[in-house]
Amino acid sequence: MQIKKPMITSRQFIILAFIGGIVIKGLMLPSVMLRVSGRDGLFVMAIYFVLEIINIGLFCKLISDYPDKTFFTMLEDCFGKAGGKIILMLLLTAALVKFTLNLSEVKAFFAIGMFASMNWAVMIIPVLILCFAISVKSLRVLGRAAEIFFPFIAVSIVLLMLILFREVPLENVLPLLEEGASPIKEGLIKLPMWFGDVIVLAVALGNVKNTKRLVLKGVVARTISSLLIMAFSVALFSSYGNIIPLVKYGHNITTLTQYNLGSQEFGRFDLIIYSVWMSGVFIKMAMNCYLAVRCAARIINVVNYKYISAVLAAAAYILSIFAVPAITDVYELSTALWARIIFSAVEFLLPVVLFAAAKIKYSGSGGKKHTDGEKAAEESADIKGEKTAWERQ
Questions:
Q1: What CA–CA distance (Å, rounded) separates 173 from 156?
Q2: Secondary structure (3-state) at 208
Q3: How far apart (Å, rounded) are the C-alpha atoms in residues 57 and 209?
């Protein structure tokens, strides 16, 4: 049985880039920024979003220029086997910490916005099963899932914008820079973990077809998602800018939509919107799992993703339930110096370094041809697992 190299279309890649840039950030980022940097958090977000857009553009350029070079092949070619594995270990660590943060934000979303108390030790299990089950599949599964749910997510975003800006005192977002640049500096240093979400798209390198104008499409998609998050933040900052001390970690835009809808009279209609929104959240979390599983597989040279997925799911469960069970514990983990350094290195620095290294490495050949090993891998098929070596990457 011969199975073709798994690929996603450029449309699916762009949708994944858009979803990755908005769904998780829309839950907690505005309130976190308001607590740390106040209204000046808008400047922090703008700076990080520019970095994200640049890195998306670099990844899209790599995909267009070297359509047959996967992320893992590039790492090995540019940094050697040992260097590549060190980078993969850093990536795996960052992916697990980011996934733990995402889990805590989903927990906070449900606990604060919907249920006063919930048994998270039980509720987390189906979330982990869903995300890590997707991670053992082909990248095509993620691409198709994103493509199917995107129209509903887009509608939910439009409805959310209409609700959020129904009665928002926009003048409360001012004044800015009352305390100079110190709040901006604090936000930049302390909160890199809440940004990025670009490196998860590395698994798409060498797996995207129809790459015409991919750079432009990727940059536009990420710019739109960034502007939408800025808009959500303006709504929250305008509503709570004068009472920042009352904003608790975990506070999110559900309180705004609940108030603007007049839930006492009309009920929680906004919950329908958030239910659709959560489909995008789970897709984004599955992208993290997909990257983590493949990084672990390459590190230990194992091709059976099921066992790796089970081990990583167990690790995520232990982290979320026992190691850092409280939202504040996850916040401390995500703002720890070592976590910020590792995450910033792989999320913001690695795309730039990899782009430069790939340009130097493939400057003569153009990177269009497979190596002998890659060609053999493409032509071989694992009938039992219905995977080619390309899928293992």
A1: 25
A2: strand
A3: 16
Residue 296, SS3?
A: helix
- Which residues, 6+ apart, have CB-to-CB distance to 264 below 8 Å? none
**Among 1.20.1740.10, 3.90.650.10, 1.10.3720.10, 3.30.420.40, what is the CATH number of 9-362?**
1.20.1740.10
Residue found under tokens 């992320």:
71
d(Cα 277, Cα 231) in Å, to the nearest integer? 17
- What length is written for the chain? 393
Please tell me the pTM assigned to this model.
Answer: 0.87
User: Could you tell me what percentage of the chain is helix, strand and coil, using 3-state DSSP and rounding each to the nearest 5?
Assistant: 75, 0, 25
How many C-beta atoms lie closer than 10 Å to residue 385's C-beta?
15
- Cα separation of 32 and 29, whole Å? 5
Q: In angstroms, rounded to a whole number, what is the distance separating the alpha carbons of residues 308 and 310?
A: 5
Dump pLDDT digits (tens) for 133-169: 999 998 999 999 999 999 999 998 888 888 777 777 7
Q: What is the CA radius of gyration of the chain?
A: 21
The region, left, alpha or beta by phi > 0 then psi within -120 to 50, assigned to residue 268 is beta
Residues 327/329/334/335 CA torsion (nearest 10 deg) = 110
